[in-house]
Amino acid sequence: MYQIIYLSKASDNLNQQDIENILETAREFNSSKQISGCLIYHNHYFLQMLEGENDDISALYTKIKKDSRHTDIVLLYESTKYDRSFGEWKMGFVDLNSEDDIEQKMFVDNLLTFAEITPKFTKSMDVFWDEVKKLLIR
Question: Which of 13, 66, 81, 131 is deepest in the core (most CB within 10 A)?
């Protein structure tokens, strides 16, 4: 199992329909390649963890780097591991740009708490949750 974590900045003209298109395409493609992962979007930044076979993840990441819907792509972590972190999630998604300030604050607080109490069995999970925390306090 190969896993990567990257951070990128959404393009200035990115809109909600673009995000929905990203998710639809990702879920379809990931399902066909047995790729799992999680995408977080907040304050015009994406943080994503992808996991699957090395060749599939490498090819997907090459394609992701060419996508004009985001820029400033930084590979934060890559590793080989035994188990999946996101199991059956073909593409979990969290949009933290909710218009409901109270609901968003509660979710962010809960996610930060979850990040603190989640067992960190691998370095990749440490990196992922550390980046989630940084993203949330931007």
Answer: 131
